C-alpha cells in the first residue's frame, strides 16, 4: 500500500529553538539506535524515510510530549 497522503501545516521553523530541535533529533536517534545524517536531520524528512514505522513514530511522539509537557 502506498503511504497515506498527509497535508502539512505551515510552521515557521525558524522560531523553533536549536535546543528543541536537538532534543527531538536525539529522541529519533535513540529510537534508531544510530545518529542521523545531515540529510536525514531535515524538517521535511519523514519517519518512514529514515526507517521508523508507525509504532516507532508514536514512541517518539510520546517522548516529545513527555519532555515538553504537552499532548
Can you put this structure into words, describing what you see?
- The protein is mostly helical.
- It is built from two helices and no strands.
- Helix 1 (18-32) runs antiparallel to helix 2.
- The longest helix has 15 residues, at 18-32.
- The mean pLDDT is 89.
Write a brief structural summary:
The protein is mostly helical.
Mean pLDDT: 89
Secondary structure category: mainly alpha
- The proportion of strand residues reads under 5%
| Biggest pleated-sheet summary | none
Shape: globular
Work out the helicity level.
40-55%
**Number of H- or I-type helical stretches:** 2
Order of helices and strands: HH
Which tags fit this structure?
0% strand, single chain, 71 residues
What is this structure's SSE topology?
Elements: H1 18-32, H2 54-68
Amino acid at each position: 500500500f502506498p503511504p497515506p497522503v498527509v497535508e502539512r501545516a505551515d510552521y515557521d521553523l525558524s522560531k523553533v529553538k536549536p535546543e528543541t530541535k536537538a532534543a527531538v533529533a536525539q529522541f529519533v536517534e535513540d529510537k534508531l539506535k544510530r545518529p542521523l545524517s545531515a540529510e536525514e536531520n531535515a524538517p521535511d524528512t519523514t519517519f518512514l524515510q529514515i526507517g521508523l514505522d508507525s509504532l516507532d513514530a508514536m514512541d517518539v511522539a510520546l517522548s516529545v510530549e513527555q519532555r515538553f509537557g504537552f499532548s
